[in-house]
Amino acid sequence: PPSTTGPLNINTATAAQLETLDGIGQVLAQRIVDYRNANGPFASVDDLLEVNGMGPGILETIRPDGIDKLD
Residue 22 in contact with residue 65, Cβ under 8 Å? Predict the structure, then answer.
């Protein structure tokens, strides 16, 4: 199970924090951070699908782990 203590805010989480989610490795975590830095905050958890390498399967795997887009 992931080592998070609660929902991660996808708009503020570090790459290291994102890596704690099942299915998110070092490369994909960094792509999420890079995408967010280049494009601004995610408006929806589903916007993660815009990140290269993120597919619906990974998104559905991490959604129950407690990802959250709220401040």
Answer: yes
